Amino acid sequence: LENCLKSSVTGPCDILNLAAMEWARSHPGLSEPLFEVQVTSPGGKTVNCFGNCRIRPDEAIENITAADIILIPVIAGDLGPLLSDRTLVSWLIDQHVSGAVISAVCAGCFLAAETGLLDHRAATTHWFLAEDFRRRYPRVILKKEKMIVDVGDFITAGGVSAYQDLSLYLTARFGAPELTAMLTKTLLLDPYRTSQAPYFL
């Protein structure tokens, strides 16, 4: 998405691709990989990320008919144009109806909430954005102290670097805790965090 943080796209790609490689090594004979990662964008257009970095996607979202997991990255700056994109919001709703798990990080959680599918359900976002989130989505039960909130078909994660926590969480949920433990050792990452409270001002 325009003005996303590039690391919140490429970081999960690296972690999930490494997870898939390790899963295949430890589970010989699998017919399908644990994760097949695709970077997508509206129209398949090259995206201008925060800091004028660019990402060339693998595919247009319009060509994705049935994703298993969608990860909405961190978004910097004004969220207005993104949240008013009804075509994008409708696509997320259609993907959810088709069975996709929608995950999001930081300000990307606003886009997940914009679908209306988190009304009366729990979610999180960056603690600094909590009041804006509550004003815009009063029906969502915001857990700003949580780093990750999983309600089954939606997984939301806290601040910018929480893409690491979310990626590790996905490897545990869809793979195994042992896989996650191996990745933390290989990548020198702490196990995924559970609370944002230590970072509150």
Defining key terms:
201 residues, alpha/beta, four-stranded mixed beta sheet, two-stranded parallel sheet, 37% helix, globular
What does this structure look like?
- With 201 residues, the protein is α/β, with parallel strands linked by helices.
- 37% of the residues lie in helices and 14% in strands.
- It contains 7 helices and 10 strands.
- The chain has helices at 7-26, 80-83, 86-97, 108-114, 130-136, 162-174, 177-187, and strands at 40-41, 47-48, 54-55, 59-60, 69-72, 101-105, 122-123, 141-142, 148-150, 154-157.
- A 4-stranded mixed sheet has the order 5-6-10-9, sandwiched between helices. Strands 1-4 form a two-stranded parallel sheet. Strands 2-3 form a two-stranded antiparallel ribbon.
- A hairpin with a 5-residue loop joins strand 2 and strand 3.
- The longest helix has 20 residues, at 7-26.
- The two termini are 29 Å apart.
- 37% of the residues are buried.
- The model has no long low-confidence stretch (mean pLDDT 96).
